């Protein structure tokens, strides 16, 4: 491989939104284009020369082997990294209380946009009152306990599937459903949920009712599982 081609193969940094696989394509393409320019006569490269270049690149060589090895190492790290890690600034209790209707937040045509969650969290403050902080503290303690087992690789799936979390969700939903059963709770629910945000217009009553129903269904399901 020529000196000019050797200069073309350093592994570039990954731009946002591009996979590491694309980096390798850039490396190989740069090497091919460098060799093609060297072989070109009056801007034209013969098919025979292209075939020889392809065979040379496909065979690797020490310089390309180094790039391939680095790429393999980076890809292996990426694919072994746990997905959905719990961040230090996350509020696990808020995430837990969104879990029953998380499926309604997914996709471009989501039933309930994530921008409305701040309204929902405000409702939770009313529903829990002084009990909110103990619930939040308990959920953080669960995460800390999971970190003892899983280290920094602890994910939301670890948290959601833990039996302590399931029991906490059941207890929290008892508070929510009891609050919603009263006239004051219903009034605060609609006052908080059926209103616009800075970024979004007012959601419909139908949208908000689906969130409420998901919470009630989850509470009933957890209660039935306990019997």
What do you see in this structure?
The longest helix is centred in the last third of the chain and has 22 residues, at 205-226. By secondary structure, the chain is an all-alpha fold. The protein has two domains: 3-80, no CATH class; 92-226, no CATH class. It is elongated. It is 67% helix and 0% strand. The protein has eleven helices and no strands.
In short:
The protein has helices at 3-7, 20-39, 47-58, 62-80, 92-98, 117-128, 132-150, 156-161, 163-180, 183-193, 205-226. With 227 residues, it is an all-alpha fold.
Written as H for each helix and E for each strand, in order along the chain, the element string is HHHHHHHHHHH
Please indicate the percent range of residues in DSSP E strands (runs of 2 or more). Answer: under 5%
How many distinct helices?
A: 11
The total tally of domains equals 2
Gyration radius (Cα, Å) is: 28 Å
Bulk shape: elongated
Which structural class do the helices and strands define? mainly alpha
Task: Describe the SSE topology.
Blueprint: H1 3-7, H2 20-39, H3 47-58, H4 62-80, H5 92-98, H6 117-128, H7 132-150, H8 156-161, H9 163-180, H10 183-193, H11 205-226
Helix pairs in contact: 2-3, 2-4, 6-10, 7-9, 9-11
